[in-house]
């Protein structure tokens, strides 16, 4: 009687030259992102709220979040730094999550720095183009995370999913605010009830887009938290600061609630974390096949 040799379990994949290149590019772009941030806070240049003729200030447009909202950047930047360190860990160099997200993360860091630099030049419409590309890159990154069957460890989820979920949720709201700033800077008037109701329509459409995103990525609380944070501070800004609009304040608050509700519903429909994509569908088809054979 012969016995088959027992094979040792396969170890982690060995890093390739492409993995090492990706790690270096992420690190270089993180440094660029930090330098851009130092420009944006006024250490080397003009603060963001004072750049572009003040068009990006917290009281410049109906869709501008109150100043406190921007403190979320501190959490996001800390997360990007942690991600840069995480992807250098020996066990993560060839990790599927690092491979799926690394290049997109690097692009997002470069776009972040680029946005800060173009606003320094007063190129408000160029900044709109940059932030639109940024939100698309982040959406693709989070979508890739949702497609991976293994959610990783708690640390992986915090550093990767948490960071880029917050990043996406906040930048989605910031995109709407950026477009509003560009329109007002170009001479579009924002006085009167008509402008207020257009603002309400914009935040509700934004909530619908975020709900659609959450449906695609399985409902991620980090995305919901950051977007609800931004929408809530739009509500606070319009209730307590100029340009004042209680109509838009209520609309933004409603949009924040809708995002949270949509996220909860999306999570209720999503497969359990770690489940292989479409596994449920395969199980159903398998059951049907067994029934047919019987």
TrEMBL record:
Task: Give the matching PANTHER family.
Answer: SI:CH211-161H7.5-RELATED, XK-RELATED PROTEIN
Q: Which residues cross the membrane?
A: 24-44, 64-86, 98-117, 123-143, 164-185, 197-214, 221-240, 246-266
The organism sits in which domain of life? Answer: Bacteria
Q: Which InterPro entries match?
A: TspO/MBR-related_sf
User: Where does the record place the region Disordered?
Assistant: 271-294
Ordered alphabetically, the record's keywords are: Membrane, Transmembrane, Transmembrane helix
Q: Per its record, how is this protein called by name?
A: Tryptophan-rich sensory protein
Q: Where is the composition biased (Low complexity)?
A: 271-280
